[in-house]
Amino acid sequence: MHGNGTGDTNGSRVKQGPDAEWPRSANGATSNRVFARTEKGYYVLGPKLMAKSDFVCVLWGGRMAFCLRPLETDGRMMYLLVGECYGHGFMSGGGVDMLDKGMLEAQYFEFV
Prior knowledge:
The protein is α+β, with helices and mostly antiparallel strands and 112 residues long.
C-alpha cells in the first residue's frame, strides 16, 4: 500500500491547525445565504430571504453591501434592511469608487 505521507492511504485524514479552520469559516459565511445577480449584472452573496424586488446597496460610511426591500407604508416608499451582502468590488470603499466612475448611482432611502 502507498500512503500520502500522513499515515493514511486515501488522503482523507482530518487536518489540524489553520488549514482546518477554512472549511468551518467558509461554511459559516455561506450558511443561510444565496448567490444572486443584480439587474446590472453584479454577483452577490446575500441573505437567504433575498427577493427579486430587493436592492443591493452600499450605505454611506459602510464597509459592506446590504440588501434592502422596498415597502410602501402610508403611501410612502420605505425600505426594510434584509441583511448584509458580499458583493465583489463593493466592499471596503469599492462602492464609492464605482460611484465615482459612474458604474453606480446615489440614492436616498428611508428605513422602516
